[in-house]
Inverse folding.
């Protein structure tokens, strides 16, 4: 049953659409147990800083160990990390019309005949993201900067617009990407092999709850969050409903929960 005097819980997510998707489902779980939810979002480093300072009760989600462990390590003894809701990973990808025999792995980008066709300006999201750190390293370690490639972090809106513009023009370009992300579903982007392993591992995307907040959250809500598994496909489905279908994050979460018969009533 719901709490008779529901506590307000602050749920924080990184300011990217697929993180909003996962946070919306988390919000619905907490609301189903009577909680009032205050939602906040921030950049990668700032969100972890806010939780460290006690301003975020539930962080959705930490990608561990590759992308976010360095942010969480400062206060890991003050939180509980739940089981993962999905298992993300980073890639570099090209549009499906770029021939596999021409560009199979990241090192192929340096071949003269590929450089001649490929746009060498590589755009990314904000610099605090794991994929941005990894991509800057790839440009250096594969010698891509020596043949004219550059990597520039940017905004999510700019990143999405860049992909859509490139696809519409049938441009040859490479994009730092990850799963889950709706652009994978929308454009069938093709991941490149990355033999040096600079893109990290498959991470566990886990909610992180401050130990102090655990005493204020309905224990059955915590248990439900600890067993919730949307998978990459589920998060991409919600993300696509937001970015392609025009739904709000909460509307998209409600559709996902209904379509998959995951009732939130208690």
């Amino acid at each position: 049953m719901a709490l008779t005097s529901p506590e307000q819980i602050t749920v924080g997510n990184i300011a990217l659409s697929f993180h909003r998707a996962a946070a919306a489902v988390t919000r619905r779980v907490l609301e189903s147990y009577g909680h009032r939810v205050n939602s906040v979002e921030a950049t990668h480093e700032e969100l972890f800083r806010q939780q460290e300072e006690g301003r975020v009760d539930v962080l959705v989600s930490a990608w561990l160990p590759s992308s976010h462990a360095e942010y969480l390590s400062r206060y890991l003894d003050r939180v509980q990390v739940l089981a993962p809701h999905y298992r993300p990973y980073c890639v570099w990808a090209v549009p499906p019309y770029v021939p596999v025999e021409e560009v199979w792995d990241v090192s192929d980008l340096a071949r003269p005949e590929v450089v001649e066709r490929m746009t060498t300006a590589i755009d990314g999201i904000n610099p605090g993201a794991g994929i941005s750190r990894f991509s800057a390293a790839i440009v250096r370690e594969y010698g891509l900067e020596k043949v004219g490639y550059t990597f520039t972090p940017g905004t999510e809106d700019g990143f999405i617009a860049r992909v859509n513009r490139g696809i519409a023009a049938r441009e040859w370009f490479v994009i730092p990407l990850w799963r889950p992300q709706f652009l994978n579903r929308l454009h069938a982007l093709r991941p490149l092999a990355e033999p040096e392993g600079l893109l990290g591992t498959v991470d566990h995307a886990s909610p992180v709850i401050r130990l102090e907040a655990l005493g204020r959250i309905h224990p059955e809500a915590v248990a439900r969050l600890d067993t919730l598994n949307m998978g990459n496909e589920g998060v991409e489905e919600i993300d696509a409903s937001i970015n392609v279908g025009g739904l709000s994050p909460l509307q998209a979460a409600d559709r996902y929960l209904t379509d998959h018969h995951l009732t939130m009533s208690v």
Observations:
- The first strand starts at residue 8 and ends at 14.
